[in-house]
Amino acid sequence: MSSNVMTKNNTSTKVRFMAQIAMLTTVAEILMLFEIPLPFAPSFYEIDFSEVPILIGCFIMGPAAGVMMEFLKILLNFLINGTMTAGVGELANFLIGCALVVPAGMLYRMRKTRKQAIIGMAVGTLCMAVVGGVLNAFVLLPAYAAAFGGMDAIIAMGTAVNGSISGLSTFVLFAVVPFNLLKGILVSIVTFILYKYVSRVMIHND
């Protein structure tokens, strides 16, 4: 094969990869607009399935692509909806999303089997719960408190829907951690169901 043909093939592959990233990011942003409230957490904690296309893309194209899609999704949402936390919430959401998709993608690339995908998503879900808890305790909740009238007001919102919440630690333990665990599990289930169908029509980064 001539160098010109190889160059054209490489260019075509790169273009398709970028097109796949753009497509999956767009789907993720659309899904981010549809949020489901939960009975055990305040109204600003709502589950969305925007991580599903990103996790699928991470399995297909690798962890770096997953990070890129997370960044583009958060950037698009920032441009469309703005921010109430001076960008702090968006940064934390980016890191929490990466905590799910990056470990899952890294483990799956080591051995591309169904079992490994499940292990990767389970590890990613646990990482998301831990990272989400830490970031909410030290970054997100203080940022929301500054925007919504102080930490006491935030805790009161939690207590109103969950009587077990009486302070910051119980807010994280009984609202934030279950929220991220539930989201990780639901995203993983949907990804597991859809992955083999979506992956058939996309270029893989092997």
TrEMBL record:
GO molecular function terms listed in the Swiss-Prot or TrEMBL record: riboflavin transmembrane transporter activity
Extent of the signal sequence: none
Primary residence: membrane
Any one of the GO CC terms: plasma membrane
Transmembrane parts of this sequence: 21-40, 52-79, 117-141, 153-175, 181-198
Pfam families: ECF_trnsprt (PF12822)
Keywords: Cell membrane, Membrane, Transmembrane, Transmembrane helix, Transport
Subcellular location as annotated: Cell membrane
Membrane topology value: Multi-pass membrane protein
Keyword Chaperone appears in the UniProt entry: no
Protein role: Probably a riboflavin-binding protein that interacts with the energy-coupling factor (ECF) ABC-transporter complex.
Similarity-based family: Belongs to the prokaryotic riboflavin transporter (P-RFT) (TC 2.A.87) family.
Annotated protein name in UniProt: Riboflavin transporter
Source species of the chain: Candidatus Limivivens merdigallinarum
